């Protein structure tokens, strides 16, 4: 996808970007760079193939995400090492993945907030996290702690079912004092996950996250929440409904998490229900693709040129060419929806589903930040007569998010290793039609 923002260019001397009419340096070349901020439980993902007996030995419930003790973590990791069961070790964390993917796609700055071990040694968990994170992700605001960061074991059985064992280490010790309010207020978006609310007595992560969210709300910075796992949402669905209604602008989830928070199985209807609480919804639905939902003012609606689709909502994609807006910016709000089937029908062989949703969210954030960048550099553009939340239409963003997800599905790493090409021979031109 081609957005305004940083790009690699050939340089010819002199390189001063002067306007030939005024002989003055073009102000757009010195525009303030925008960025996004994410808060995460900094951890490393360790992926291994195991059987049911292995899960039983460590009292891990198949298909669930569980917190495990330091003692179990050491025994589990040593057993995996001794039997050479580990396939990969990657920098992880749902928001850490998203920040990395955003910086790869946008070739621009993102800022990660969290904790990092004070003492880092070659080959340890903290070293693996840093060495596998894009240099465009600003880690300078991480809070140092005297101890380990988190470890997440992704244990895959013969059926492909994934069981997660999470050892927190000190990942939940981010202190509210480490939240830089001016940093949050200057961001294009603040991104958090539901995991930040799953803490133990003595942890300060939840307090820090809530402080950041309130700061973003006060500064008019969009707050993006990814629901993380249905098991966490199922414990307190009413709490999460109240939380997103009070603090969140953009909600991202998969179909299981959508069911947990709304009680509705159909992803489209679940996304529609979530619009009661937020301004925009991203819902990944596995092999069925991706649904987006949002609001637009009646005066700015744009009708789709694609065939109209009917699900539980009749012709729901009629206005998918519209650019979504915050509900408060709409005088006559109307709901808009779009759906995209998996890119190229989906990969022939899925190597990894962990991180696909993070890549989709990163693509949406890239579009959102491109809109902020364009507004800062070309404020009088006709494009900004509409106070839109994003640079592109709902339909175009859905395609971009699907394409980014595909790139993760066909590789083992949950993080993108490179940006997407602007043009692809294998891509039907109609897929990117304006």
UniProtKB/TrEMBL annotation:
Key words, A-Z: ATP-binding, Kinase, Magnesium, Nucleotide-binding, Purine salvage, Transferase
EC number: 2.7.1.73
Domain Carbohydrate kinase PfkB, chain residue ranges per copy: 128-294
Annotated pathway: Purine metabolism; GMP biosynthesis via salvage pathway; Purine metabolism; IMP biosynthesis via salvage pathway; IMP from inosine: step 1/1
Residues binding ATP: 284-289, 357, 402
An example molecular function term from Gene Ontology annotations: guanosine kinase activity
Region (Disordered): 1-22
Record-linked Pfam families: PfkB
Cofactor: Mg(2+)
Binding site for GMP: 93-97, 198
Family recorded in the similarity comment: Belongs to the carbohydrate kinase PfkB family.
NCBIfam families: PRK15074.1
Chain's role: Catalyzes the phosphorylation of guanosine and inosine to GMP and IMP, respectively.
Name of the protein in question: Guanosine-inosine kinase
